[in-house]
Amino acid sequence: MAATGLLPLAVAKACIDANWRASLAERFGGAAWQSVDCSVGERVWFHGASVGEVGGMLPVVEQFQQIYPQTPLLISTTSGTGKSRAIDARAAEAVCLLPFDHPYFVRRAIARANPRLVVISETELWPNLMFALHERRIPVLIINGRISDYSFPRYRRLRVLISPVLRSVSRVLVQTGLDRERFVELGARAECVEVVGSSKYDRKVPELADAELASLAESFGISREKPVFVAGSVREGEDAAVIEAYCAAKAAVPGLQAIIAPRHPERFGETAQLLAAHNIDFNRRSMPRPEVKPVLLLDSLGELVQAYALASFVFVGATLVDIGGHNPLEPAAYGKPVIFGPYTGNVRDAVGALLERGGGFEVRAAPQLAQTIVRLCRDKQLCRQSGEAAQSVWRENIGATSRVIKVLGHYLNDASEGSEI
């Protein structure tokens, strides 16, 4: 069995990676799983791969809690950072790392979770888990379903393996019409696939008063009197381009400030080294009570949306490298012009709308990014109008959460529906 054959690799990795070693028992269905009260019935189990998927499904989890406050919830993720995000949100009674997709381990997890319904975010297709749930007649729903331009060719080559997994799913709630076509082509039952949008655009946008913004800027070591360029969720290979663009733009706009937020914690140190190599005077968010400096390295988790609130305009990461793009409507919700690179296959609809309305700017490399920054700094009217256009696109994309909740409620309130898998 392939799953059994991969276990020695997991053990080998644990021998050299302390973080992986610490999570190994949990990935075998032990540790945190053993603290889940298996006597609790009617539990709903939500799963998201990592920080992005967990954050994207939290609006659903939070609204679900409001409507079904007595229903116990469990959240699983496949990454430590995703688990931390779910724990910080306090959105479920139990948060666990998903076990390895091996029949024995997933059976252990299912026995502890004792779920009535399992909700999976985006495209987490774990065959042994989903077949085990199917055998127990536990409905599985996919929400925020998407298949990126990058994944689709690979999935299509593996259709013979993926099709049985998708046919075991009760409902697939996808983001766009193209995603629906792709899921159906890969084997999902057409009558079970519905376009509802993405709940990740429904994240709450904190409304900060001027006094709160002033306090936040002070804690970040940022002046509110000068323009602030925020580079959010920057990936490896982008940080150098972002720093190069900032340096070039600052030569034309001397007061320009920047907040640079690497996507993954393991990049914090490397990005700091890049800033130092460019002789940039910068703070780290992890430093206590920083003095005002032109650049802040946001080496913390969960504070990017606060940085967006302080921004004059925003670059969204995973778009200058061939990854597919992070959520461009997160800064748009704050009325900020959004800048992104050419690799936006994961968020193609949102990017298309931003470009069409004038709320977004596509750049190909560091020189274009610098030119766009300078243009937005110098043309205040363009910056304001672009921000307003971006915010209008965000408003038009919210509302998926309520549509998802309606489907979930159908499964919870109609026992007979849960048996039709």
Per-chain topology:
Layout: H1 2-16, H2 18-27, E1 43-47, H3 51-67, E2 73-77, H4 80-89, E3 94-97, H5 103-113, E4 115-121, H6 127-135, E5 140-145, H7 151-157, H8 159-167, E6 171-174, H9 177-185, E7 193-195, H10 210-220, E8 228-234, H11 239-252, E9 257-262, H12 268-277, E10 282-284, E11 295-297, H13 304-310, E12 313-316, H14 329-332, E13 338-340, H15 348-357, E14 360-362, H16 366-378, H17 380-397, H18 400-413, H19 415-418
Helix pairs in contact: 1-2, 3-4, 3-18, 5-6, 11-16, 15-17
Written account of the structure:
There is one protein chain. The chain is an alpha/beta fold. 48% of the residues lie in helices and 15% in strands. It contains 19 helices and 14 strands. Strands 3-2-1-4-5-6-7 form a 7-stranded parallel β-sheet, sandwiched between helices. Helix 1 (2-16) packs antiparallel against helix 2 (18-27), helix 3 runs parallel beside helix 4 (80-89) and helix 11 (239-252) crosses helix 16 (366-378).
